Predict the structure of Branched-chain amino acid ABC transporter permease.
Amino acid sequence: MPRVPLAAVQLPPVAPASRLESWRRVFNPRRVLVLLALLVFPFVATPFITFQVAGQSLVLGLVALSLTFLGGYGGMVSLAQMTVAGIAGYSLAILGTSSGADISHQWPWWAAIPATLLIATAAATLIGWLSVRTEGIYTIMITLAIGVAFYYLVLQNYTLFNGFQGLREVYPPKVLGIDWRSPLPFYFLSLACALAGYALVRWTVRTPFGIALQGIRDNPRRMAALGFHVVAHRVAAYALAGLIAAVGGVLLVWYNGLITPGSVHTSWLINILVIAVLGGMRHPIGAFLGAIVFVLLQTFAIDLIDRERFNLVIGVVFLAIVLFSPDGLLGLWAKLRSRFASNPGAHSP
């Protein structure tokens, strides 16, 4: 079938939404209430809950959001998103300040952070370029192989990555006299990055690029016949997802105060997938909901069972949610709402 030039493709005109409707979408009452709750939460919660639970959930949710964007809107399930976050973490520790004085270059934060994001985004773009020509299980296996290869690279290389011990004492800089690793500042820093990532994904999927990406997800051959460059769109999606994962990687290394091979172990590659699926791959907010469930189980499951059996608990919860709702917790919530909405008088006397 001959390729149709992109300029010749005529899309039907779309009536622009009124300014009032746009404001209503942005300032939805439920969204405003959720935002207010997030802003008030750290002032009523303990520092432990604020930092260990809420802060960690926002950081892991940001990394899982990159996978949600790729899988939900691009149809590409990548297991290398934690690898991209790990590349960002190692880059920050090497370019910035850490315990490895002979390895770290001691760059100022305003130079180290942009360079870190650029390196991680470039790595994500390369990963995308290597994997976008495959689909389904082959994409998963290629990205998993890349993640495993990076794990053994940082584990066995002592000159650049300090091997098994990794790089420690990687802390956020004190800007404006604020210790950004304290529970309250770190929570608001993570919240700001999470909201920015969420808004970026929501905005992107409504742009011509995002709509074309969803078309490629549904029928790549037809989109190619219409003149869209399928490979370029997919690689661009990997780059954008890599930027989101890179920001999460910077926050994660600041949260832990270190970066080691254990941070990019195969188990964490799978955990990011579990988080994304738990919340719902088709909803950007699902990544953060899945992260909350994961962190709560990780933090408090040891009070009920042995620490070694945490993966068993996660596996049982994962299987239960997938069996009852393939679209995750948000899909289950939507089913319950539709069921009660279709039977408004089911519980009436």
Q: What stands out?
A: The chain is about 70% helix and 0% strand. The beta strands are 167-168, 258-259. Confidence is low (pLDDT under 50) at residues 4-17, 345-349. The two ends are 63 Å apart (CA to CA).
